[in-house]
Amino acid sequence: MHPPVDRQHLDPDLIHRLGRLDLIARAIIQGVQQGAHRSRRRGFSTEFSDFNPYVPGDDLRLLDWRLYARTERLFVRTFQAETNLEVMLLLDASASMAWRWAATLNKLEYAANLLAALAALHVRQRDQVGLLLHDARAIHHLPPRCRRTQLDAIFATLEAIVPAVGDTLPALLQTTAAVRRHRGRLVLCSDLEEEPDQLLPALAALAGQQDEIIVLHLLDAAEEALPFTGATHLRDSETGELLPIHLARLQQEHPAQVAAFRRFWEEACTGLGLHYLPLHTASSYVDVILALAEALQQRR
Q1: What ranges do the domains of the chain cover?
Q2: Which of 161, 197, 205, 287 gives 20 to 30 Å between its CA and that of 168?
Q3: What is the end-to-end Cα distance of the chain in Å, rounded?
């Protein structure tokens, strides 16, 4: 029997304390490998290439005899890539993504950790991976490549983000449509806190390019739970304005508002043919990646 995935050590806040994105990505990947083998799930369409020790019940057709000749131990091939994929990771680096409740992990940090792990997983399976984000300084564009130096560049860019002020996501999507050359997979991580009349046309234009597009709709766990006590005002994450609130009424009405917000964007994304996945900053990175892998496989 395989040991269960260690959820305590995969808590997003604890993983973030590792500090460096290469260490964070490595920890998440180890959890994904453990969780995927235990659940028998198979990953993205170009599966994560790896080997696991053979156990009774594994498919004998997946035994790697060359590895056995070198090690005299039985291993099965798992997540073996059939084709190389071009993957572009898109990150919303707007001010709302940097909103933080107390000392917890904010959305921008969570997204950077998650995308770093996805980048590392795809590079390991020899996919070409790129990054595009719009922060306070500039639009940062790393064209898709498959090499270790590309992964280092992605980590460095994600670690140096300065949150932008104002609506940057529509401009980011427009830039994406302009710079891409090959069809592949786009992974967008955003809180989608933009005016729909600006964001929906940009999403529709991107959807028209026939890429496989994944929208990771990320909220802060506190935005869903509202763990506030005694608050009379809340600060707008984009403008900095203090807004008066009636806390008891807000906490009563808020769950329905969040559900409606999620539902609006799920229906909008689904209507455009995009894959929508809701998550929050307390979501296990491993669970998110495995759920995404399973959902993508079900669509095929």
Answers
A1: 8-78, 86-298
A2: 287
A3: 30
